[in-house]
Every structure is written in structure tokens, then in C-alpha cells.
Amino acid sequence: MPPRNIVAELTNPDGDVLSAEAEVEPVITEETHSAKRPPMKIVWKNVVIFSLLHLASFYSLFLIPKAHYYTLIWVFLFYLMGGLGITAGAHRLWSHRSYKAKLLLRIILGIFQTIAVQNDIIEWARDHRLHHKTSETDADPHNAKRGFFFAHIGWLLVRKHPEVKNKGKTVDLSDLYADPVCVVQRKIYRPAVILLSFVLPAVVPYYCWGESLWNAFYLASILRLCIGLNVTWLVNSAAHIFGNHPYDRRISPAQNVGVTLGAIGEGFHNYHHVFPYDYSTSEYGWYYNLTTFFIDFWAYFGQVTERRKIPKEVIERRKKRTGDGTEGFNF
Fold this sequence. Notes:
mainly alpha
């Protein structure tokens, strides 16, 4: 079944009804932000963990020439699996409900999302729904108005702003708690992460083609994880700072080709923040968008239904009304 058009109204996961051309992002002004933010409190445990991860990943780079080429292919495949768990799963399916997936695909995406190690599905979706409701304000978990570093990783190294906690309580997650895949994953998340993201990636190369366990662990578990995390974080940082704004010049999220390539389709960010319920996060279909291809592939086998798509005429009207006059990516 082809993707359906969203012509009249959209209902977001929090129950708000929005027209297809509704203002889904606040216009950012200086008054949007708190005049006096409380001092940031560093979470030293996270600082140590992420520092060690990046140092170990830097060391891992020197192991690449010594690795079996099967191992490098394995690393890339695991990177894609974790990435799709975020893009097709936590983001487009569970955060935005931009399509529906049957149980088999939801289980696969739940496994993939666990591989990515970015908190469980429910927590990830809560933060992302809040990000869209309060984008670029103090209630936004990774507010890009606080700088590239904060939006990229800094938000994970400090205590959350009080507004994040306050507004986070207003996000409706009932649909996620009604999904057994989300509930079960949340219950077994930590042991599942150890097994799927650290043990499995290392032991398969060791047993299947004789890679050293040392190389396999540092490349397939550590380096792959670090790259996957940073690529996802670039959606919050680079794609909110660098790029053009064909759909709405008044908001920070931008079209960023580098992020699009690395995050397998998530860098059409100006489009996504204007039309967050489009399952493709882009008007261009499979172009630079492996995640859209993945969703359409499963739709062919009946595992995906009700893909939500914005009509072309609505997109064009929005471009003329609020866009910056550019098309695609402005290199």
C-alpha cells in the first residue's frame, strides 16, 4: 500500500491536533530563554564514562590495519543496525508514530535500538517528544542555543535543567507503555545492552573467522558504539546550527548533507521540524535516505502500514511562505 497523504489534520503523540501547515516550532527569541539559568552541575560519572569511551575509540583506530576485512564489514553492519534502531525505530516509529509496524518488525527494531545504547525506547522517545514541543528553549534537553558542545554531548554530562524535568512530566507516553516491545525492552535493558552491544559484536568475529578477541571488542563494540553515538549527536548539534532552511527560515534546525549521510537520512532537519510526522523526514523519498528505503522495504512485505506523507502542494506552499528560497542542500 502506498504512503498516505496527510491532508487535513495531524495528531501528535501528545494529543495535540495540528494542521498540515501548522506552526510546529516556536519562533526563537531571546525572551524564549531563561534570563538566569541555574549553574550547571556536572555528572562526573558520565564525564568519566564518555571520556574513557572516546579514548578507547581513539586507540581502536590503530587496530584497523591489523583487523580482518570481515571484521570491518561486521563493524559497518552493526553500525547500520544500531543506526536503524534509532532512525527507523526510536525516532520515526516510536517518537513520531509516522508509520505503524507489526510485531516482528517492532521486535527487530527494539533489538537494533538496544545495540545503539542510547537509553531505552521509552526514555529516548520522551526526550525527543519534549525536544519537539520545546525546541531551542530551556525545556529542550539538548538546546542548541546553548552552543554546539552542549547540544552534542554536554547535555549528557550535566544535570538536566529544571524546565526539562518539569515539562518532561507533561509528555504523554501512554502509547509506548501499551507496546509490549517497549515495556519488555525497558525491563531488561541493561543486560540486553551488555549482550547485544558488547558481547555479541566481539564474539562473532572471534569464533566465525578467527579475529582476535582484542581487535573484535575494540572495533566492533567500542569504536562502532562511539561513532554511532557521535553521529546521532550531530543531529542535535550540527543539524541545528549549520545548513540551509528551505521550509522555515525562522527556526534553527537546518538541512545538513553531512549529517544526512552519516545518520542514514536524518539530516533533512529543517523539513523534519516543520513536518515531524512525515515517515521519510524528507520530501525526496530514498534520496540520501537509507532509513526510508528500510521502512519501504518492510512495507513491501506487509510489516509496515499507514506511512504518513505530507502532500507536495502543502510542502510547496510552506516553502513560499516561510522558506529561505533555497532547495535541497545549500553547499
